[in-house]
Structure formats: C-alpha cells, structure tokens
Amino acid sequence: MKKFKKGFTLTELIVVFSIMGVLGTAMFAGYYSYVDKSKEKLTEYELSQIVRAVDLAILNDEIDDYTDLTEAKLKSIYQDAFDVALGSDQNLVYANNQISYTNRGVTYQYDCLLNKYTKK
To answer: Is residue 63 part of a domain?
Structure first.
C-alpha cells in the first residue's frame, strides 16, 4: 500500500514564512521611505505657497518688501492666505531675511535675498 502525503512539512512552512517575512520587511521599509519623502515635499510646497502669499502682499502694497516683513506680519499673511492659524506642530519664523517653516517634523528655509530654498 502507498502512503499519501497530506499537507506541507514543517520545513516547507518555515521557509515560506521566512521568505514572506523578508519581503514584508523590505516592503515596509520602502513604504516609510516614501512617506518621509512625501512629508518633505509637502513642507517644501507649503513654504513656497507662504512665499507666494508674501510676494502677493508686496504686490498689493501691504508691505514694501522683505525688509519690511516682521514675524507678526508673516503670521498674519499666513492666516489670511490659508484661512487657518498655525497648528501646534507647525512653526513659522522670520529672521535675518530668512523664512523658516517647520511642519510634520521637517524644516525648510527660504532665503529672501538669494531666492533659495534649503532643508535644515
């Protein structure tokens, strides 16, 4: 009489689950890298929108130029442009002709004189 084998051996199951674990780990690492890059790009985009709002305020003669800008005026322009106050995880600072914006743990700076964005 022949004995028929039913199911998988323990070794086969261990190998399959090990492979699944390695693939899952690689997938999650790629996912979190993608999420971090998305946070950075979104923060950079939001800072560019803040700079556009300041440029619009200059064009509308609300302020003369970047030298006339103060941190209080910057926050007021932000609130007028976006119809929302800064959140608890956001920080907007103006000092030494640089606008620094922090959101979602990412900080970007805009140098008003050099017209240049940099990540801190």
So the answer is: yes
